[in-house]
Design brief:
Layout: H1 6-11, H2 14-40, H3 42-49, H4 55-71, H5 73-87, H6 90-109, H7 113-116, H8 119-149, H9 155-183, H10 186-191, H11 201-213, H12 219-226, H13 234-241, H14 243-252, H15 254-265, H16 267-274, H17 279-307, H18 309-330, H19 336-364, H20 370-386, H21 389-400, H22 405-423
Helix pairs in contact: 2-6, 2-8, 2-9, 2-11, 3-4, 4-8, 4-21, 5-6, 5-8, 5-20, 6-8, 6-11, 8-9, 8-20, 9-17, 9-19, 14-19, 14-20, 14-22, 15-19, 15-20, 15-22, 16-17, 17-18, 17-19, 18-19, 18-22
Length: about 425
């Protein structure tokens, strides 16, 4: 298949490749932007939508809604994946980005428990579920879109920008949240300030919709269509013929699922609510580590096109296992600089795998079921490990008394990824199937 579309890659204008890259990344930006601001303002949302005498109980309910939204992600992956592998990548991705943006905006407009009672947490949960369905169809489709448009010798670099966009969304969301927290009084923050970042979802969604509708279908999928090789039942085809690739993909995404949600989304809440950092300091420390993380991603993505995917993933998985617990022990509200260094250590360990894994996963899936295969491989680990990470971390700390308990959660996911990387066969020279 790679050979059959090589000419299309060569003839395809660079401008079209770049447009495809930007269009695919917009949805990922909105997705993770929403998740990070939800994480940053979790303590505020807990008081407004889940009032309880026990603050820990309110926070657990808030993160439970965060986790519940992930229950619908596999369903969204199956629906959008089927449509994407049967009829093309473009339209499902356009619908997904619009649903994500609408759900984010609804959360910003939602009245609180004090205003409408139980309807408030119910609507909040419904908005997160709809968002979960659309996000479930977004991630695998965007990865397929970028990989199938990217030049063969720069596929690692191109797909790495998808991960960079996720990091950028975390950085922008964290920066906006920190700015609002620092600029407003606690009373104004609870009254209306927390809503402001959610309002950005709608205009970003319209931009993403416009960009995606203007693009043509990917050359790889167009080739499958022209050769009449489109799978009638992509999920069944994948489970029957590509189950090993799907399992390897699930393993490769295990560490990112835990690391992104513990290192960057849960981190501000953990630093402030568990370790006693001032909220502004917790957000600022997380922001510095995100800047460092984003700066590393393009380098490692480019390096994967030189040395291969497997070496970077193996080294990174080992580093995550070795570094995470000592780094957690370095976190101390009395030593801000040392705490930032600890967060940056974890980012350095994680970045090589984060920049490489999506490309590796795209290359082991055949074009006729790539959208579905990636959606299954991505959504199941993210649902089980990512969506539940803040809830599990909060539960472990409150019920064991071990302030470093979240580190063991990350280490367990790192072991799964190490095993998958050992089973993965290098795809640098073989390219897309």
């Amino acid at each position: 298949m790679e050979t059959s579309v090589a000419a299309a890659d060569a003839r395809g204008p660079i401008a079209q490749h770049k447009k495809a890259l930007v269009a695919a990344c917009v949805g990922n930006f909105i997705e993770y932007y929403d998740f990070v601001i939800y994480g940053y303002f979790a303590s505020v949302i807990a008081r407004l939508f889940f009032p309880a005498d026990n603050e820990a109980a309110s926070l657990l309910l808030t993160f439970a809604v965060f986790a519940i939204s992930y229950a619908s992600r596999p369903l969204g992956g199956l629906i959008f994946g089927h449509l994407g592998d049967r009829y093309g990548r473009k339209t499902p991705l356009a619908v997904a980005v619009l649903l994500i943006a609408a759900s984010t905006t609804i959360i910003g407009l939602l009245p609180t428990y004090e205003s409408i009672g139980l309807a408030a947490p119910v609507i909040l949960t419904a908005a997160r579920l709809v968002q979960g369905i659309s996000v479930g169809g977004e991630y695998g489709g965007a990865t397929s879109f970028i990989a199938e448009y990217a030049p063969r010798n720069r596929r690692g670099f191109y797909t790495g920008w998808q991960t960079f966009t996720i990091g950028l969304a975390l950085l922008v969301g964290g920066g906006v949240a920190s700015l609002i927290t620092g600029a407003l009084s606690p009373a104004d923050l609870r009254a209306w300030g927390w809503r402001l970042p959610f309002f950005a979802g709608l205009p970003l969604g319209f931009v993403g919709l416009y960009l995606r509708l203007k693009l043509e279908e990917t050359p790889h999928f167009a080739s499958v269509q022209s050769h009449q090789e489109v799978a009638r039942a992509p999920l069944l085809t994948g489970l029957r013929d590509e189950w090993k690739s799907i399992l390897i993909g699930m393993g490769l995404i295990s560490a990112p699922s835990a690391c992104i949600y513990i290192y960057y989304i849960y981190s501000p809440t953990y630093l402030s609510a568990v370790l006693g950092f001032a909220l502004a300091d917790a957000q600022r420390a997380n922001l510095y580590s995100l800047i460092f993380y984003c700066a590393l991603l393009p380098f490692f993505a480019h390096l994967s096109d030189v040395v291969g995917r497997r070496p970077l993933m193996l080294v990174s998985a080992l580093a995550i296992i070795i570094v995470t617990y000592p780094a957690f022990r370095m976190l101390d509200p009395a030593h801000f600089g040392r705490s930032v260094a600890a967060l940056c250590m974890m980012s350095l360990a994680f970045a090589p795998h984060s920049a490489t894994a999506l490309c590796a996963m795209a290359e082991i899936m055949p074009t006729k079921m790539r959208y579905t295969g990636l959606s299954v491989s991505l959504n199941i680990p993210v649902t089980l490990l990512g969506g539940t990470a803040p809830f599990i971390a909060t539960y472990l700390v409150s019920h064991t008394g071990d302030l470093r308990a979240p580190a063991w959660f990350v280490i367990g996911a790192g072991l799964c990824t190490l095993l998958a990387a050992l089973c993965y066969r290098e795809t640098l020279r073989t390219g897309l199937r």
